[in-house]
Amino acid sequence: MILLCLTYRIFYTIIIAAVRKEVNTLKKIILTGLLVGTGMLVLSFVVSPLLTLVFPAIVSEYQNPSLFRPWTDPLMMLYFLHPFTTGIILSWIWEKTKGMFKQKEWWRRGAAFGLTYGLISLPGMLISYATFPLSVAMVVSWTVSALVQLIGAGIVLVKIRK
């Protein structure tokens, strides 16, 4: 009976420790993801106007109601949710893959991680160009913006989660 109680207590302690560790890891992933998402949103506010200077024709595409919703549409609020969901996903992926990035400096690890995620998203840009009536300039601007945001996100993420 004592052996049974001790065995139960040991397994109980191990299970509780594992659950607590998972909860702490989840909190870390979410909080880091929200910080990374904030950085991505700020970067988008900096990069987007610069890209409209480089590709001025895309401004009229953004104003085309057959392509994009107007900013007055309530669904456009989801635009601001995007960097935060991406930040949380990046944080989770970093937790699972951080051992794969062996660069010496932390910022190089972050840049490599962000670039890797950015390269994974390139087929999505290609399919957007192939299926929607978008200009090459629009898709190139999205690609550049995404890469800048993702590399910045990777750097912020690795700095926080070294």
How would you briefly describe this protein structure?
With about 160 residues, this protein is mainly α. The protein has one domain.
How is this structure best described in words?
This protein has 162 residues and is mostly helical. It has five helices and no strands. It is elongated and about 75 Å long. The model has no long low-confidence stretch (mean pLDDT 89).
Q: What is the CA–CA distance across the termini? A: 46 Å
Overall shape: elongated
- Largest β sheet strand count, sense and barrel closure: none
Could you spell the SSE succession in H and E letters? HHHHH
* Low-pLDDT windows of residues: none
Rg over CA atoms: 21 Å
- Structurally, the number of domains stands at 1
Structural class: mainly alpha
Q: What oligomeric assembly is this protein in?
A: single chain
Tally the beta strands: 0
How big a fraction of the residues is strand?
under 5%
Helix content: over 70%
Number of helices: 5
User: Mean of the pLDDT scores?
Assistant: 89
